[in-house]
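forwarding from the other thread:

> can someone predict this with adenosine-5'-triphosphate?

sure thing
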Amino acid sequence: MSEALFEVKDVTKSYRTGDVEVQALRGVDLTLERGEMAVMLGPSGSGKSTLLNIMGGLDRATSGRVRFADHELTEHTERQLTRYRRDHVGFVFQFYNLIPSLTAYENVALVTEIARNPMDAGEALAMVGLKERMDHFPAQLSGGEQQRVAIARAIVKRPEVLFCDEPTGALDSKTGILVLEVLCRVNAEFDTTMAIITHNAAIRQIAHRVFSFRDGRIEEAVTNAVRLQPSSVSW
Ligand SMILES: Nc1ncnc2c1ncn2[C@@H]1O[C@H](COP(=O)(O)OP(=O)(O)OP(=O)(O)O)[C@@H](O)[C@H]1O
């Protein structure tokens, strides 16, 4: 049997602000296979972003273990975590965080300067269906197009894993579906492992597996017998 790409074991995370302690994760176990598309659902505050930030090397667990391939993330120094993020991980957030004074092409090309084995910025923009728009500035692009530029920027370094926190949260359903189609294409063509956080339960249908969070734990993990194309999902 092949070894999982990610293995999360009994992870807890608590935040302390003054006298107040918040228990964001209360013992999470999870594995992700290479090439798997996972959707993370759950109420606000249930710990989804906290877990993704820890798996993405942006934050540290309070206890427990997180392994990615042969990286023991929970034992990494800050320097090792930075290298892990740079070499292996792409992030897509709800708000696109593009640099307004740079064109779509330049926003993506910035990453190619520090990546180990990037694709060409134009190739990444073609992958998200925006080759014709690469000389446009963010203000000249719709929200969905800006999000696709953000996805191109995340995939241009050929990450093995892509973490998406509410990637369609700011988009109407038609535009959101286009963005999900791009994510499915990247997953299928590059075998990129993905974890997508959403409040939109309909999106669960595009995943291989759906994890439901509640109160800092994973309450349920369901494998979809049939996956839907984003174009067949409606909300
Ligand atoms: N940096 C922080 N400092 C203090 N508390 C935090 C911090 N980050 C998250 N929390 C708390 O941890 C809990 C889990 O937050 P988290 O953002 O992981 O939830 P979520 O499921 O992603 O929620 P949402 O769907 O609203 O984004 C919440 O109670 C939140 O207030």
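DSSP finds six helices and ten strands in the chain. thats all i got for now
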